[in-house]
Write a structure and sequence with these properties.
The protein is 18% helix and 41% strand. It is α+β, with helices and mostly antiparallel strands. The radius of gyration is 16 Å and the shape is globular.
Length: 165
Amino acid sequence: MPRPERMPSKPTNHSSALDAGRGGGIATIDQLANEGFRTGIIATDDSHDVPADGFGGWVMVAAEALKAGAIIKALKAGDYFASCGPAFTSIRLDGTMLHVTCSPVDRILVAAGGHRSFATSGDGMTEARIEISRTDFEFFRVVLTDRAGKQAWSNHYWMDDLGLH
């Protein structure tokens, strides 16, 4: 088994989702995380026919500058999120309160280790505060779902990195 730092990101592949119904890999990613592997989450359209399936998935990178070196540095640091539509503005943990701001969505879900989840729903929400009072899980990630069912995924946040373990 490869070491965790050498594990590749498990993609969400839009073209494969359309053509073969096998584009998502989030269950695999969470299983790897439950076993301690720290992977990144990406989305891609993998399109070879832009009109049919282009622009179905991408990553939004929080780079310091629009330069190749800065983008690579941000990707390696995990400073990005994957999306097929919605966008995160910020994800911030204040004590045990998770603050999420985003483009308008109908659901904000926190998926945590051990198959736990916390969610809030509402029409066109642009923010949520979700209590993360339990710390008996190793990680969590945030999922946005908009009215059209399109999603965005944060990378995992690890409790030990946040000083909560």
